[in-house]
Amino acid sequence: MSGSLSGLRVLDLSRVLAGPWSAQILGDLGAEVIKVERPGSGDDTRNWGPPYLTGADGSSELSAYFLSANRNKQSLAIDIATDKGQELVRKLVSESDIVLENFKVGGLKRYGLDYDSLKAMNPGLIYCSITGFGQDGPYASRPGYDFLIQAMGGLMSITGQPDGAPGAGPVKVGVAMTDIMTGLYATIGILAALNHRERTGMGQHVETSLLDVQVASLANQAMNFLTSGTVPQRMGNAHPNIVPYEAFPTADGDMVLTVGNDEQFARLCDVLGHPEWAGDERFKTNRARVANRKELVPRIRQATVMRSTDDWVGALEKAGVPCGPVNTIDRVFSDSQVLARGIQRQLNHPVLGAVPTVGNPLRFTLTPVDYRSAPPLLGEHSGQILGTVLGLSPEQISSLVSEGILGKDCS
Fold first, then answer.
1. CB 182 within 8 A of CB 18
2. How far apart are CA 255 and CA 250, in angstroms?
3. Which of 219, 250, 273, 382 has its CA 20 to 30 Å from the CA of residue 50?
4. CA 305 to chain CA centroid, nearest Å
């Protein structure tokens, strides 16, 4: 392995999405990632389907959900509820740089796998905890899921059609963005702790939560409230601070206009055939357009329905006006720019064959992202990990399988 994080070992005790997303990023960047799973069932998302990707012989399958967040990992199926299982994990911790977990607060303490218990044997350990609500506070003991946090963290209150419009009501984002953002923040925290360890030799406990991340990710909407006292409302596809910045109907569908400054607006007016709008005091500046959006937006809609999406996009791009079609996901993966960037990739799996994956968006000149392995079958690498990292013999591994400490599918 030759990635930026080559030489580091990650023990991934997390499941579902936020933790696995972070661990997948670390794996993409070259770290060795050992995914610890419950024998027999594994990560919950292995069964979150359909759809599933099935092997040619039909004997093995992985859910699309699991496939989205678990490449570049090895799977170790081990029962951490047992004394021997806990001891094996502790031995792996002593040989690791990073532990990533998303158990409930205190959930690993009873197994002796919490940070305070593990740092004594590995002072340089970076231990990252992800929870729903944080390590303290009145909600600390509650479980957290993305949908719940999108609601409690305010995101759904600003997502969806405005009150009084058809289909009005709070709506969640179409993917688990709170989980994904939490995975990104966790990764940033781990990298910062690695830099600190490089300077001092000291590890530390990094923690974040879905609720903390969701509130932090309210970005301009949070500041809109904190600076004005006005509670942001659902606005459909409209933007609270920029006009025009939303979806507009065309003769055969919809397109998005993202006009970020007054010069772009003037060019838009020319293409729409209404150059006079750019000089109208009601629309001349973004501040005026925000104040008078109810007068301007219907006028733009009346103009955009006269031509097809492709016609408008071609003309507006030529004029330097940011715009684009509202693509379905199949069109995303056939888009010429997406194809040129090589975002869709294939990984080979020894049982499932060719496994599709969505590439990491980072690009490096010296240490490129390494797509080493497809998401693993449950326990696929148990024997390999315990033999290579801990030096266990085949007989010792076989005995652990017989005792139920390791999954029967251990290899």
1. yes
2. 7
3. 382
4. 36
Pairing of strands 98-101, 9-12: parallel
Structural domains in the chain plus CATH codes: 9-216+339-402 (3.40.50.10540), 245-249+254-325 (3.30.1540.10)
What is the radius of gyration, based on Cα positions, of the chain?
A: 25
| Dist. CA 171–CA 128, nearest whole Å | 31
Catalytic residue among 12, 28, 79, 179: 179
- CA-CA distance, 127 to 382, in Å (whole number)? 22
Q: How far out from the chain centre does Cα 396 lie?
A: 38
Residue 147 clears pLDDT 60, i.e. is over it: yes
Q: How confident is the model at residue 56 (pLDDT cuts 50, 70, 90)?
A: confident
Question: Whole-angstrom Cα distance, residue 211 to residue 308?
Answer: 42
Q: Catalytic residue at 179? A: yes
CB-based burial label for 288 (10 Å; 0-12, 13-18, 19+): middle
To the nearest whole number, what is the mean pLDDT of the chain?
96
**330: region left, alpha or beta (phi > 0 left; psi from -120 to 50 alpha):** alpha
pLDDT score of 235: 95
Indicate if the alpha-carbon torsion angle 296, 299, 303, 305 is positive or negative: positive
What span, in angstroms and rounded, lies between the C-alpha atoms of 14 and 22?
A: 10
Note the pTM of the prediction, 2 decimals: 0.93
* Structure confidence at residue 408 (pLDDT): 75
Q: What is the percent of the chain with per-residue pLDDT over 90, rounded to a whole number?
A: 96
User: Is it the case that residue 22 has pLDDT exceeding 80?
Assistant: yes
Residue 55 has pLDDT above 80, yes or no: yes
Sign of the C-alpha dihedral computed for residues 391, 393, 394 and 398 taken in this order = negative
- Which tokens sit at 107? 């959930």
